[in-house]
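Sample intake — Peptidase M43
Collected from: Chryseobacterium kwangjuense
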Amino acid sequence: MKKLFFGALVLSFMSACNSDNISNQEEISQDTGATTGLVASKRSCPSDLIREKALKNDPALKARYEANELQAENFKRDLSMGKVLADGTVEIPVVFNVIYNTASQNVSDARIAEQIAVLNADYSATNSDINKIPSAFQPSAAGNVKISFKLVATNRKQSTKTGWRSDLEQMKKSSTGGINATDPTKNMNIWVVNSILDENNQPGTLGYAYYPESAGLWYDGLVIGYQYIGKTGASAPFNLGRTVTHEVGHYLNLPHLWGSSDTGCQTDYSNDTPTSPGPNYGTPSYPLNRVCGGVSRSQMFMNYMDYVDDKAMFMFSANQKTRMQAVVAAAGPRAGLR
Ligand code: ARG
Ligand code: ZN
Ligand code: CA
């Protein structure tokens, strides 16, 4: 008994964390009362010694250690820069690039501030119409998406052009009469133009955006018609700032409710948004049932990712929130925004 106790004591000085010698631990556990005090009275820990040896001998382990330290530094920096707020909200820096012909197209700072406020309300579920969510959809409502928006710069440029084709992206390069993106790996750029034209030079688009696979490319970001920025002086029925809410959804990897194809009834990768055959317009009345694959489902047309009027859309779903959080997560495709 005495010999066993002494052996345990010596061993306990050699490997004081009791973590590397199972048989030693077993011996101690047979005699807990006698050893506890001694083990606690002189503390040492071989963790660093063990680590030092292991890191020297295993380059893969060393690389993992270095990656972990880098991640810890980045996390600390993000916190101190206020980009990841205390409650985990990711604050996205936003740059507005306004290209106008006439003075009225040069949207005011006040309207841009209104737009940022709309984004912050809609993405935190503090929008004034959030209580309109039908009770059947309340269990699948996102609540606070925990993504917020902060205006960091507004660039303005006069141009003689009266329309900008979405397939040419000339508004995004100064060499083609536009404004270059401000580091799109770190900022969400929004170009405001007087008219968005299709490849046949036809107007009709309120706005468009790039999905996360384009993160950081020169054309990454949103393009929005000046009529749909903010609220004051904006064009009804798209005058509640929700064109930008919708396009930011795409920027954060949300497809339309009917999927990313005009055929409809495709997946939007959110199982809490009922499958939809295609867009809804105007102000539909609830409930609205539509059919995909022979199955009739009550449509979540009040979701921001439908095409209804601004006043008829007021929610994201919980699954949509998860998808957007994945995009801005530390390992996500838009982690650079953090
Ligand atoms: N890209 C869509 C369009 O141009 C945006 C729809 C936005 N919907 C809205 N109610 N603001 O039609
Ligand atoms: Zn869309
Ligand atoms: Ca769905």
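Post-analysis note: Helices lie at 2-14, 22-29, 32-41, 47-57, 59-81, 109-122, 242-251, 318-328.
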